[in-house]
Amino acid sequence: MAEKRILCIGAGYVGGPTMAMIACKCPEFCVTVVDINPERIAAWKSDHLPIYEPGLDELVRTSRGRNLFFSTEIEKGIRENDIIFVSVNTPTKSFGLGAGLAADLQYWEKTARQILEFSQSPKIVIEKSTLPVKTALAMERILNSRENGIHFDVLSNPEFLAEGSAVGDLELPDRVLIGSRETREGLQARETIAEIYAHWVPRERILTSNIWSSELSKLVANAFLAQRISSINTISALCEKTEANVAEVSCAVGMDSRIGPKFLNASIGFGGSCFKKDILNLVYLCRSYGLNEVADYWEMVVRINDYQQERFIQGMLGAMFNTLAGKKIALFGFAFKANTGDTRESPAITIARRLIEERAIVVISDPQALKNARRDLAGLEEHVHYVEDPYAAAEGCHAIAVMTEWAIYKDLDFQKIYNGMEKPAFIFDGRNIIDHRACFDTGFNVFSIGKPPLTHFER
Ligand code: NAD
Ligand code: UGA
After folding, report:
1. What is the pTM of this model?
2. What is the pLDDT of residues 368-404, one digit of tens each?
3. Ligand 1 centre from 130 Cα, in Å?
4. Low-confidence ranges of the chain (pLDDT < 50)
5. 4-201, CATH topology level
6. Would you list the domain boundaries of the chain?
7. What per-residue confidence (pLDDT) applies to 1?
């Protein structure tokens, strides 16, 4: 019977997988994950988990019912657990001051108040959500606002997992970061959390820091990753003008060990729930400290991402004789990246909407994301079809646009697909993953990101 206890508030993409890994690696801990959303909790308890993530079903199955529990009883959870991870959503604020930039901290603050209300013993409260630097100060002020003698230590332990590889990222993290106040209690709490991770993460990868560095490092890590993508995407535009090939450029540049090869794949732009929101959050923070040049610098990373998506649409329009009206276009992939069903901020949403504005008929295919796609494009049913099988999706289409780097799209029989399409047939590869030369030889006119087009038209 597990004796030590951990609670996680928020059973989303972070809370669920992270706690499943802790439960698996720390059998002496009883881990409970709570959420206000009863459907989500029911799904975590079922055979159909609320999120698709390779390896997650097996991971959850090893501990669920043994030392991993999912529940909606938040009050009970807070009362019974003295280590509380908070992993609620922190989206971009959509109203009032800072709308469109700042983090919306309402879910976060509500959780802090619940913890205060239901606590009967000292707690370590850990920020797992991504938050603006200095949020812990607000958390401390709320938690310590009652004179009831209960002591709260607030720590920052940001999560660096990427979707699609979450299980591997949790099992073998590059680092685990734990920030705390540098007081005796703060350092003690830091060690308590470090000991949990030390069950499977080598000590030299468990990094400790002051709490503000920890909060800020998370925003900066995402900003740097996204910046690399925007950087290579700007170069893809230049490649298209100069007949340079962006894949060759990124290979040559990335082989410099000071630069490194990762996150240099030119694409239709980055998606996902965090890059954009975290950079905008950083921009807002910088502006609120009067650092306008710093804010402008980071804001460009997001602006280039928007530019890249608009450039893709303009490329399609230009290639297809400046009209898409009435044409059928198959989108291969709708998730924001491969190996996930998540479509939050997926470039495919923008592309689909823009194609519909141009009066095209859109056929969406994706192995995991059709349910979310239907939700994202609600109200546009008249213009969109959803077809899981890519062969059937492309049937009768004028063009295919690759939106997600799913491995299955590399191995399709493009001859078969070509035979069933309207001619001239086009492929726009927004991820540079298919064999462009082979598709061209099949008869397609092939347009990719940052590479010379392969067309059968006379110049
Ligand atoms: P999510 O939306 O999938 O999950 C958040 C969950 O919190 C939801 O199920 C929601 O119902 C629940 N919730 C909100 N308020 C609550 C409350 N008061 N009490 C109980 N539950 C509540 O979000 P996510 O993708 O898991 O992200 C959570 C945080 O982690 C965000 O700050 C995000 O920036 C950060 N993060 C996300 C990722 C990722 O890959 N998704 C990676 C690293 C960090
Ligand atoms: C990202 C970070 O990689 C995680 O470390 C972080 O924890 C997480 O955000 C978060 O805070 O939410 P995630 O968004 O899940 O993870 O996925 P990434 O692999 O970073 O991909 C993000 C987007 O960039 C995807 O749309 C992907 O297709 C795109 N991308 C990635 C490129 O266009 N080119 C690349 O070279 C790499």
Report:
1. 0.97
2. 999 999 999 999 999 999 999 999 999 999 999 999 9
3. 9
4. 1
5. Rossmann fold (3.40.50)
6. 4-201, 219-305, 308-448
7. 44
Distances, alpha carbon 131 to alpha carbons 256, 262, 440, in Å? 33, 25, 47
Tens-digit pLDDT profile for residues 26-70: 999 999 999 999 999 999 999 999 999 999 999 999 999 999 999
Say whether 308-448 and 4-201 share the same fold.
yes
Neighbours of 312 (CB within 10 A): 23
AA identity, residue 328: K
Distance (angstroms) between ligand 2 centre and the Cα of 256 equals 22
Peptide bond into 424 cis (omega under 30): yes
* Sheet of strand 328-332: strand arrangement: 384-386, 361-365, 328-332, 399-402, 426-429, 445-448
Q: Which helix (H) or strand (E) holds 447?
A: strand 445-448
Residue pair 70/36 in contact (Cβ under 8 Å)? The answer is: no
Could you tell me whether strands 206-210 and 384-386 are parallel, antiparallel, or unpaired per DSSP bridges? unpaired
Q: Token pair of 111, please?
A: 């959780």
Q: 308-448: what fold?
A: Rossmann fold (3.40.50)
Among residues 155, 174, 178, which one has the least CA distance to residue 165? 174
Residue whose CA is closest, atom 34 of ligand 2? 265
Residue type, 253: V
CATH topology (fold) of 219-305: N-(1-d-carboxylethyl)-l-norvaline Dehydrogenase; domain 2 (1.10.1040)
First to last CA, the chain: 74
Type of residue found at 262: K
In short, whether 292's Cβ falls inside 6 Å of ligand 1 is no
Longest Cα–Cα distance of the chain, Å, equals: 81
239 is an active site residue:
no
- Tokens encoding 123: 């707690």
Distance 156 CA to ligand 1 centre (A): 15
What are the φ and ψ backbone dihedral angles of 314, each rounded to 5 degrees?
-65, -35
Beta carbons within 8 Å of 26's beta carbon, 6+ residues apart? 4, 67, 196, 199
Residue 340: closest CA among 223, 105, 169, 173: 169
pLDDT of 149 reads: 79
